[in-house]
């Protein structure tokens, strides 16, 4: 019997951005619907942004940062910090989830664990 091969974890960059914005929103007690309304999106479309299933446009990220009373550069600084933490665990950051869906799931689980340990 062979041991099952675990996929190489990876994290899509869009998931990093989404999780940083989500973390700031949750810390401030904000709701997804408020963010969605600001961007002219449905709550489900906004949820896909936070999960990294779709990518924030630069404009959307700017508007979310403003609502969260953050500079867009602060959002990106937090993303870079997470990226550094994940790279220390040999988790590559990729453009999109399509590269390795199973690896993306493993990587996102690591990202969520990292975020929860930072609270």
From TrEMBL:
It holds the Pfam family HTH_3. It comes from the Bacteria. SUPFAM superfamilies: lambda repressor-like DNA-binding domains. Residues 21-75 form the HTH cro/C1-type domain. CDD domains: HTH_XRE. InterPro entries: Cro/C1-type_HTH, Lambda_DNA-bd_dom_sf. This is Helix-turn-helix transcriptional regulator. It comes from Roseateles flavus. The lineage of its organism: Bacteria, Pseudomonadati, Pseudomonadota, Betaproteobacteria, Burkholderiales.
